[in-house]
Design goal:
The chain has about 170 residues and is an alpha+beta fold. The protein contains 3 helices and 13 strands.
C-alpha cells in the first residue's frame, strides 16, 4: 500500500473517531442536575432549610423547514423558517419543613412535586413577498405585479406540566 493511501486512511479514521466522540456527550442526557445550596438560610434564620432537587433542560434543535418556491412568488416560502427545539422538563421536588415556622407540630412539612414532561418549541418565522412575481411567459419573461405581503409566524410552546402539593 502506498504511503498516500495509508495517510488518507489514517485521516479518514481520525475524522470518524472525532465525529463519534463529539456526538456522545450530546446524547448523554437532556437535562443537567442542579444542586441549590440553601445552607445560608439555615445559618441566618436558625431553621431547617427547604430541600430542592431539580434540573435544567437542555434544548435540542431540530431541522428547520426547508424554504420552498411556489408559483407566482418571487421569494421562497417561508423566507425565515422556524427552528424546532425539543427538551424535557425535569422532575422537581421541593420539601419545606413547616413545624419550626408555624409552631404547629401537626403539620411537619410542605412538599411540591412536578413530574417531567416533554417540551416542544419553535422559533418565530417570517414570510415576505415583494410586489413583483416571477417571470411570466405571456409577457416575454417580464415579472408581473402583485400586492406585497408580509407575515410573521408566531413562536410555539407545547408541554403538559403537572404538579402535586402535599402537607404532612
Amino acid at each position: 500500500m502506498m504511503s498516500t493511501a495509508r495517510g488518507t486512511l489514517a485521516v479518514l479514521a481520525g475524522c470518524l473517531a472525532t465525529a463519534g466522540a463529539g456526538a456522545a456527550p450530546a446524547a448523554a442526557g437532556e437535562q443537567v442536575p442542579v444542586a441549590v445550596p440553601l445552607t445560608g438560610v439555615e445559618n441566618a434564620l436558625h431553621v431547617k432549610a427547604p430541600e430542592l432537587s431539580t434540573g435544567v433542560p437542555i434544548p435540542l434543535p431540530g431541522g428547520p423547514d426547508a424554504p420552498r418556491f411556489a408559483a407566482g412568488r418571487m421569494l421562497p416560502e417561508p423566507l425565515l423558517p422556524t427552528v424546532p427545539l425539543s427538551s424535557e422538563l425535569p422532575d422537581t421536588r421541593v420539601e419545606a419543613p413547616l413545624s419550626q415556622v408555624t409552631g404547629d407540630h401537626r403539620i411537619d412539612h410542605l412538599g411540591l412535586t412536578t413530574a417531567g414532561s416533554d417540551v416542544r418549541t419553535a422559533t418565530p418565522g417570517a414570510s415576505v413577498n415583494p410586489p413583483l412575481t416571477g417571470p411570466v411567459g405571456d409577457r416575454f419573461g417580464l415579472p408581473g405585479m402583485t400586492l406585497p405581503e408580509a407575515a410573521l409566524v408566531t413562536p410555539l410552546l407545547t408541554t403538559a406540566p403537572g404538579a402535586a402539593l402535599d402537607l404532612a
